[in-house]
Amino acid sequence: MARISPTAAATSNGQDPLAGQIPFKGNGAGTPEVIIEARDIVVGFGDRLVLNHTNLNVYRGEILGFVGGSGAGKSVLMRTIIGLIPKRQGTVKVFGVDMDATSDAGRRAVERRWGILFQQGALFSSLTVKENLQFPVREYLNLSQKLLDELAIAKLEMVGLDASACDKYPSELSGGMTKRVALARALSLDPEIVFLDEPTSGLDPIGAGEFDTLIATLQRTLGLTVFMVTHDLDSLHTVCDRIAVLADGKVISAGTMETMLASEHPWMRAYFHGKRSRAVEHAVPQPTES
Amino acid sequence: MNIRVNGEKFLQDTVQGDRLTLSGAGAWIAINAHTLEVAIQAISRRYPAVKHVVIDMARVERLDTFGAWLLERLTRVFSARGCATDVTGLSSDYGALMSELRTVKLDDGSRRTGSQSLFYAFASIGENIASVGGSLLAIVNMLGALTMAYARVLTRPRSFRFTSLVHQLDNVAWRAVPIILLITFLIGCIIAQQGLFHFRKFGADVYVVDMVGILVLRELGVLIVCIMVAGRSGSAYTAELGSMKMREEIDALQTMGFDPVEVLILPRILALLIGVPILTFLGSMAALYGGGLVCWLYGGIDPEIFLSRLKESIALNTFEVGMIKAPFMALVIGVVASVEGLAVKGSAESLGRQTTASVVESIFLVIVMDGIFAIFFASIGM
Ligand SMILES: Nc1ncnc2c1ncn2[C@@H]1O[C@H](COP(=O)(O)OP(=O)(O)OP(=O)(O)O)[C@@H](O)[C@H]1O
Ligand SMILES: [Mg+2]
Fold first, then answer.
1. In this predicted complex, what is the ipTM?
2. What is the CATH number of domain B2-106?
């Protein structure tokens, strides 16, 4: 598992590109499959490098919590993986498909299998909630309007809203509702991977807790892989199988909560042992899996 | 009797008396949802009289929300008819998903369409008529707010956003000069050419100069410029203010104790009030130049003759009539653009709608104003 990509290993002078990153142990037996593989990513704006030879693996079926200071480049890495931001160097493989080498059709096939929740929601402002949810479905599947309507309502209920939100426009939603609708839209094609950029920010603690439970439920029932950028320590404790930490343009560590708590890195100590985290640590019994 | 797609049976039905057994198979997932829906509809129609339904899901390999919802719909259809419905053999992995879907209430939302479209048609006519009154009121309102803001700025000149005014003047006037010159020049040429062509038939060539002079200075110069400015700057104002409104920037200004009219709108309107007369003057000159050029090259009227004839045919007040109108037109364009900008709601579509409305409305009002001015100047003998 250590050396996945010999080329990447070679570029960093024979060092393991995933040094300090502990792979996901998996829910079942056997080595888990790498579903997203980002190697040696360099992204910069002007003369400022945001990601500096970043490596990250995401394994099938896990919920990966991605943390880092504000402005560390978490959203940038997510958008680079999705292909919204051009990279100066490096490769991204999703489902084993090299996103730069593949054809347009290959890209679209991959895009159909992931769902994305943007940090600002990014709902289509001129479509109602229902139409927002149906938009991607209509594009890829040929379903009757009745079924589309029912599915939209079902998805809304899954994210904790109800049918009364259907005919609202995005500008008429509260911040939390926007998040939920955006999640519902991200899930509308039953993707295999969902990228969530701060899904619980802006939700009340109860709502955030429900959201976490929901993500965990969906992950279990649909076999989702979740890539979740979050600052919510509760989420990290309760739902994330693994946590990856981004600092100074690199993923400095990835592993379970225990690994994070044991780390000596100053930023991680401050983050995971800070005043806010202690409350969570004491309140929530630590997961003792495997 | 079975629905087969790609050799796969999704749903198989067997009946014993009033007991129906359905056994599902294959992948109940998004790409098969359409086939499944048809199969489910067919089966629910085929057995209207059964009393007991067992749905055996043991052979279903995969289930996603699409398939799960269709299963839920199947059970609902039979339950609604009073059948006892059982789902058996479903992998426990999907238990959570199914129980999630079981609580879905469909009632709201899906029924609000159709049937009342005639009612909506009448309602929207009414709303449109009422909105004309509403927008006139909004214009008057904005004029009032502008006067207040202007008065406040006069008492505290230091608070005026001079940088903003200069920036807007640059956008509205300076950058518009080339296109305005080009268009008015061409219009001048066209009028002169048409005039020459037709006047020549009865030997009245030289009256073309009168026509070009009066038409350009009194009416066309200012009208062309105002239509250009409405399309160019009025639409930009609406779009700018509208997107600020959408992103709550205007609310933010207000909560910080600033008056959006004073900060955003007053400099824009002052820029128009200064810019439009300048552009009108430049435009009129370009049109006269174009007219003169065509008279010379096409009509054989020498520039000296053109100029002396022009001097005879127009008086200073011909020029004044055009120039007096310019600031009023500018005010109309600016106020309409601002009112429409502030009327933008949350969606991108509404931004587009208000921008269109802003341009159409301001051009319309500019022409109406021009008519009113024509009557006014005629009655005072100007
Ligand atoms: N389009 C862009 N142009 C220039 N700089 C950008 C752009 N997008 C992001 N950046 C810069 O990249 C850095 C990383 O931004 P990013 O949005 O990834 O932060 P983040 O880790 O997601 O932070 P947060 O937790 O606050 O969302 C920031 O310094 C930001 O200013
Ligand atoms: Mg971010």
1. 0.71
2. 3.30.750.24
